Amino acid sequence: MDTPILSPETLALHTGIHRSEANEMSEGMYLTQGYAYESAEQARDAFAGDIDIYMYSRYANPTVTAFEERLAAIEGAERCFATSTGMSAVFVALGSILGSGDRLVAAKALFGSTLQTFTNFFEKWGIQIDYVDGNSAEEWETALATPAKVVFIESPTNPMQDVLDIPFIASLAHSAGAMLIVDNVFATPLGQKPLELGADAVVYSATKHIDGQGRVLGGAILGTDEYVYGPVRQMVRNMGATISPFNAWVLLKGLETLGVRVRAQAASALDLASWLEHHPKIDSLRYPLLPSHPHYERAVKQMTLGGTLVTVDLFVGEGVDRAGAEAQAAAFRFMNGLSLFTVSNNLGDAKSISTHPATSTHNKLSVEERAAVDIYETTVRLSIGLENVEDLRRDLDHALSLV
């Protein structure tokens, strides 16, 4: 009988299992910095690369291996390498293959820390970075008419949830000799498969949905064996952006409930987005699987879930400057009026969260730079949790009355 193709929810329970002699049900947690060798000769051969065994937990660890194997199976990737945080995953995914004189092409709409990394480090190291409007086919065609080393995008983007045309960008990137790396955090491994759409690698902040309960930090890079077990592994091993075994174990267990959590959160997010877009205190709203989304048709083709985030732009009155102090005060009244949405810069948590991007995640951008990607003082990002959706609706309605 042919081996059946298993769903992500099943893979999340039945892959990455390496039981010890105790034959435990829950995967073991290997809290160790190093490993004993059977002989001096075995240690010599391990360091020479002649044998592949556990040597030091900065290099590899059984608990971390279990998490990597499980996430790779869910993603459909050849390999996964776990990192200490999501930003270390972004840094290593790019830094392991870019060098002085190389060219990186990126969409303008990116997480604030990613933009800061590009500006404060990559540019200083002599890497040429060209930014494009991620939704402009013409700008992509122009930017990738000449050779590049890497193309980097988010889709959906943070926080405005633009859905970029991954197959189109992948085709252009490959013609330019570049790898396409996609930050897939908003979509999650369940809602979008960038590798199937033509991307070469995927990065995650596992801190978000994969943990999903606000406990630990972690990141992951997924792609081909050649890339992940080549430059990525070499860089992490030497510069030390290693995930701890404890964090990897928490994330491993988080994967077991990822499906039920994210599907429930996405259903609530769609429900609330459908209601909020007609609310008189909402000027505009972004949720990928709403027909009102500017990239709805693209989202339907690329995504199977709309994600757990709803991004709103508040209506604060005619003639009010959306980038001014009055608009910020109205947004803060809304956020402070919420009882069930915690003010935080995290997302994908079991608890609902509200975030003001202009003063938090994207505060290092100028007013003009934020406006270029549609972020204003009136913009609020809502991460929908596992609370009862009617409770959340009442909470939002009350807070909107304060705007």
Summarize the topology.
Layout (H helix, E strand, L loop, with lengths): L7 H7 L25 H9 L13 H14 L3 E5 L2 H10 L7 E5 L4 H11 L5 E5 L4 H7 L6 E5 L11 H10 L3 E5 L4 H4 L9 E5 L1 H5 L7 E5 L1 H15 L5 H12 L1 H19 L5 E5 L9 H7 L6 E6 L10 H12 L5 E2 L9 E3 L11 H6 L6 E5 L5 H12 L3
Parallel strand pairs: 2-3, 2-4, 4-5, 5-6, 10-11
Antiparallel strand pairs: 1-7, 6-7, 8-9, 9-12, 11-12
Helix pairs in contact: 1-3, 3-11, 4-5
Task: Describe the structure using short key phrases.
alpha/beta; about 400 residues; about 15% strand; single chain; Aspartate Aminotransferase, domain 1; seven-stranded mixed β-sheet; Aspartate Aminotransferase, domain 2; five-stranded mixed β-sheet; 2 domains
Describe the structure.
This protein has helices at 8-14, 40-48, 62-75, 86-95, 112-122, 137-143, 166-175, 188-191, 207-211, 225-239, 245-256, 258-276, 296-302, 325-336, 367-372, 389-400, and strands at residues 79-83, 103-107, 128-132, 150-154, 179-183, 201-205, 219-223, 282-286, 309-314, 342-343, 353-355, 379-383. With 403 residues, it is an alpha/beta fold. The chain folds into two domains: 8-30 and 61-256, Aspartate Aminotransferase, domain 2; 258-400, Aspartate Aminotransferase, domain 1 (Alpha-Beta Complex). The strands form two sheets. It has a seven-stranded mixed beta sheet with strand order 1-7-6-5-4-2-3, sandwiched between helices. The chain has a five-stranded mixed beta sheet with strand order 8-9-12-11-10, covered by helices on one side. Helix 1 packs antiparallel against helix 3, helix 3 runs parallel beside helix 11 (245-256) and helix 4 (86-95) packs parallel to helix 5 (112-122). The chain starts with 7 loop residues before the first helix and ends with a helix.
